[in-house]
Amino acid sequence: MKFGIVVDEGPYTHQASDTAYQFTKAALEKGHEIFRVFFYHDGVNNGTRLTVPPQDERNIQERWTKLAEEHKLDLVVCIAAAQRRGILDENEAKRQGKDANNIAPGFRISGLGQLIEAGIVADRLVVFGD
Amino acid sequence: MAMDEMPDVPDVTKKFLYVNRKAPYGTIYALESLEVVLIGAAFEQDVSLAFLDDGVYQLVDGQDTTGIGMKNFSPTYRALGDYEVTKLYVEKESLEERGLTPDDLMQITYEDEDDDWAEKPSIRIVSRAEMIDIMADQDVILSF
């Protein structure tokens, strides 16, 4: 089956991101296809490479990046939600006149159309949120 | 989002339901839900909105946010008809549990192109049981 995944909550504060990761990993292991993982609301905070969790804790962002590398996942951060919350890639930082960017490897910033497309293309769109 | 960023999607029409469960202010869910609805309208899918639990407060008439320093985005709901978003299901029990009646809600209308552009109400009050059937009938449900 072809899944679309939506992550609506930020890392560490909320279970949604962890559960979305576990679901995505399990689905891939069972041979399913993940069309896209779309990060919205505070979910965009999963895509910053500047998090430094304690060493004995899971690193949520690195976990997503690694899964994306292994399975060529499309991790998309919503641009409108990202701009509000300070998640920027190189282009956006330049365009908005900011002095740094923080997008993590394996993530890309794009529009809400990517979410609608995932809903249209995927057999099931699974939303992880509050 | 610029139109040139629109992905080239397959030519299928699915039933999309946006479920609004939260009050309009206090959290960002209602505002960012509306942003998805507006962008999604460009994809010409069969779109419905559901309002239940505290989500019914999103449609209450006469919202005034001057005291809380937030943008009052409630006028946008009135514009949904222009985006061909014309089905706004409001759960009757959620209204009643909060002491609200349909008269407390904004007048939201659309022009029905299949009926000589007659102006019709977009808000449809449905029971919890009917809401279950509406949800069961969808292809994609996004819950906010």
Overview of this structure, please?
The complex is a heterodimer of chains A (130) and B (144). Chain A has 130 residues and is of the alpha/beta class. Chain A is built from five helices and five strands, in the order βαβαβααβαβ. Chain A has a five-stranded parallel β-sheet, sandwiched between helices. The relative contact order of chain A is 0.26. Chain B has 144 residues and is of the alpha/beta class. In chain B, strands 6-3-2-1-7 form a five-stranded parallel β-sheet. Chain B has a two-stranded antiparallel sheet with strand order 4-5. Chain B has a single domain, classed as Hypothetical Protein Ychn, Chain: A (3-Layer(aba) Sandwich), CATH 3.40.1260. The model of chain B has no long low-confidence stretch (mean pLDDT 94). Chains A and B meet through helix 3 and helix 5 of A and helix 1 and strand 7 of B.
Outline the secondary-structure elements:
The complex is a heterodimer of chains A (130) and B (144).
Chain A: E1 2-7, H1 16-29, E2 33-39, H2 60-71, E3 75-78, H3 79-85, H4 90-95, E4 107-110, H5 113-121, E5 124-128
Parallel strand pairs in A: 1-2, 1-5, 2-3, 3-4
Helix pairs in contact in A: 1-2
Chain B: E1 15-20, H1 29-40, E2 46-51, H2 75-78, E3 88-91, H3 92-97, E4 109-112, E5 118-121, E6 123-126, H4 128-136, E7 140-143
Parallel strand pairs in B: 1-2, 1-7, 2-3, 3-6
Antiparallel strand pairs in B: 4-5
Could you give a short account of the major beta sheet of chain A? 5 strands, parallel
- Quaternary structure type: heterodimer
Helix content estimate of chain B: 10-25%
Q: Which architecture of chain B per CATH?
A: 3-Layer(aba) Sandwich
- Distance between termini of chain B? 21 Å
Write down how many β-strands of chain A occur, each being a DSSP E stretch of 2 or more residues.
5
Class by SSE composition of chain B: alpha/beta
CATH level-four homologous superfamily name of chain A: DsrEFH-like
Shape field of chain A? globular
Quick one: CATH superfamily of chain B? DsrEFH-like
Strand content of chain B: 15-25%
